[in-house]
Amino acid sequence: MTDYDVLRVFCGPKGGYGNELGVVRDGSVIQAQSERQELAAKLGFSETVFVDDPERGVIEIYTPTLRLPFAGHPCVGTAWLLDVPELVTPAGVVGARLDGEFTWIEARAEWAPPRTLRQYPTAAEVEALPVPPPGEWIYAWAWEDEAAGRIRARAFPGRVDERGGSRSGGAGACPGGIVEDEATGAAALLLTDGLGRALNITQGAGSQILTAPQPDGWVEIGGRVVLER
Predict the structure, then answer these.
(1) Cys-Cys with 223: which of 10, 18, 98, 197 at CB 3.0–4.6 Å?
(2) Which of 24, 66, 19, 50 is nearest to 178 (CA)?
(3) CATH code of the domain containing 28
């Protein structure tokens, strides 16, 4: 089996929760996309990153079923692991920086796949939502404190061809896919771009995502990263 690291990205204040990520640091050992896809499916993480050049930060991101040009939590986790100023993804160059307990990346909303951003009147309504039937990818959110930019969110992929089974397990796991995503940087990126303001998002069971809009259409996404093994 190829060596890989396991991280949790967008952890809560005490280091819990977050979304698991597999990172193959020596991506050069697996060159063919078909072989990378096969390994990503075997590992079963929502995303697996293959590092092609650790000094330049050149990476590829795979779900168990397809290759992604960009994804939020894989970029945050890999930036933390490699400690590089930027990542080179198929979508474009992602700026990266470490700031105390948080790792930040800078990306563009157009790099994120489409999501339905559905606002609810209260955080309690978001908490009480049942898993919707398969269909559109829904990011359900509500203000916890609008003045402070605090948001409660939950993510329902609604399909299995973008994100496969989650190694993090729990109520969100199901054969061939996940019904609820614990922490999604791409959806937070879209929401921040749409609202045009910095956000402090609590998602899933207790993950935390920080965001901040930047000039010229860029958005920063930040979170805590923990090395599992």
Answers:
(1) 10
(2) 19
(3) 3.10.310.10
Both 121 and 92 in one domain: the answer is no
Q: b or e along 1-18 (b: 16 or more beta carbons within 10 Å of the residue's beta carbon)?
A: ebebbbbbbbbbeeeebb
- Residue 81 in 3-state DSSP? helix
β-pair type (138-145, 150-156): antiparallel
Tokens linked to 155: 């993510």
Average pLDDT score, the chain: 91
- Residue 96's φ and ψ, nearest 5 degrees, are -145, 145
pLDDT in tens, 60-81: 999 999 999 999 999 999 999 9
Domain that holds residue 54: 5-106
**Ramachandran sector of residue 92 (left: φ over 0; alpha: ψ -120 to 50; beta: rest):** left
Q: How far apart are CA 139 and CA 182, in angstroms?
A: 11
Model confidence at 1: pLDDT above 50? yes
The model's pLDDT over 136-191, given as tens digits with 9 standing for 90+, comes to: 999 999 999 999 999 999 999 986 544 443 333 333 334 345 789 999 999 999 99
**32 burial type by CB count under 10 A (0-12 exposed, 13-18 middle, 19+ buried):** exposed
Instruction: Answer whether residue 54 is part of any domain.
Output: yes
Say which amino acid occupies 146: E
CA distance 136 to 125: 19
Q: How many CA atoms lie within 13 A of 4 on its CB side?
A: 25
